[in-house]
Design brief:
Layout: H1 2-12, E1 15-20, E2 23-28, H2 32-82, H3 100-115
Antiparallel strand pairs: 1-2
Keywords: Cell membrane, Membrane, Transmembrane, Transmembrane helix
GO molecular function: sodium ion transmembrane transporter activity
Pfam families: OAD_gamma
């Protein structure tokens, strides 16, 4: 029973129990150099993995610039095949031009209402459609 307790205690402390005739000697399972080498190996492996993944992510992000160029090249090659069956050109819908005076009056009224000034105090000179 006493030997089992010593073995359990040594195992829980990470020590190796050596049985010699008449005495029990505890020695560390791995010496200091071996533990340091193992820790250094784990550190290099972990940091190497992180940097390899960062480089992979950087390459993936760089590919986002190249992908549209490749898509344009494939689209240009696909266009001649799509243009083969030609049909009659579509007639453009007639553009309906409206009287801009009504639009100017509505915009002027909206500006006058928001600024609390009379409509006569300013003049709408140009209207740019976007």
């Amino acid at each position: 029973m006493r030997k089992n307790i010593k073995g359990i205690a040594a195992g829980s402390l990470g020590l190796l129990a050596l049985q010699l005739p008449g005495m029990t000697v505890f020695a560390q399972a791995a010496d200091r150099k071996a533990r340091l080498a193992n820790a250094l190996q784990n550190t290099v492996l972990g940091m190497g993995t992180v940097f390899v993944m960062l480089i992979a992510i950087a390459l993936i992000i760089y590919c986002f610039k190249i992908i549209p160029v490749i898509q344009e090249k494939f689209a240009k090659k696909a266009e001649p095949a799509a243009e083969a069956p030609k049909t009659a050109p579509a007639v453009a819908a007639p553009v309906q031009e409206t009287d801009d005076l009504e639009l100017v009056a509505v915009i002027a009224a909206a500006i006058a209402a928001s600024e609390n000034v009379p409509v006569d105090s300013f003049r709408v000179r140009t209207i740019k459609r976007r």
